[in-house]
């Protein structure tokens, strides 16, 4: 059994595995040990990580980053209302009252919850770990840092 850990930051993520008597930070498909916390939606596909970050210029309205700060926040939250106008992508209200992200994906307008976008990113991190380990990942530890300057209660 391998021990796998994900460190999910505001703009970047790291994947680490315990092996050979130590902890190793795993490189992604670009041989980079740091995976950008970006998800980009296109007319034919979805890109995550470094591939998504490279689309920030050509597909900015459909490339999301910094979405971690909206976890657990209502759309009516003063922080969400203040920040949403400074974002390139659209933050909208979900039926549950929470914040969601509206994008054009597969040539259709879609609204994803913050949790769905995070799940897409975590799936990418899992694939990176599985590629490095050459076996499936069943369990992992997820570390999420909170920057109090961004919370602004």
Automatic annotation (TrEMBL):
It holds the Pfam family HSP70. The keyword ATP-binding applies. GO terms for cellular component: cytosol; nucleus. Keywords: ATP-binding, Nucleotide-binding, Stress response. The keyword ATP-binding applies. It comes from the Eukaryota. GO terms for molecular function: ATP binding; ATP-dependent protein folding chaperone. InterPro entries: Hsp_70_fam. Belongs to the heat shock protein 70 family. This is Heat shock 70 kDa 4-like. It comes from Solea senegalensis. The lineage of its organism: Eukaryota, Metazoa, Chordata, Craniata, Vertebrata.
């Amino acid at each position: 059994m391998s021990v796998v850990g994900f460190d999910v930051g505001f703009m970047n993520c790291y994947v680490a595995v315990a092996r050979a008597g130590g902890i190793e930070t795993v490189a992604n498909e670009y041989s980079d040990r740091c995976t950008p916390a970006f998800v980009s939606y296109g007319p034919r596909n979805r890109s995550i990580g470094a591939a998504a970050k490279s689309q920030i210029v050509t597909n900015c309205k459909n490339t999301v980053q910094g979405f971690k700060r909206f976890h657990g926040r209502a759309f009516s939250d003063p922080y969400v209302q203040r920040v949403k106008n400074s974002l390139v992508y659209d933050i909208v209200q979900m039926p549950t009252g929470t914040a969601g992200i509206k994008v054009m994906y597969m040539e259709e307008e879609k609204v994803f919850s913050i949790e769905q976008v995070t799940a897409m990113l975590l799936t990418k991190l899992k694939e990176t770990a599985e590629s490095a380990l050459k076996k499936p990942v069943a369990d992992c530890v997820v570390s999420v840092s909170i920057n109090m300057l961004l919370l602004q209660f």
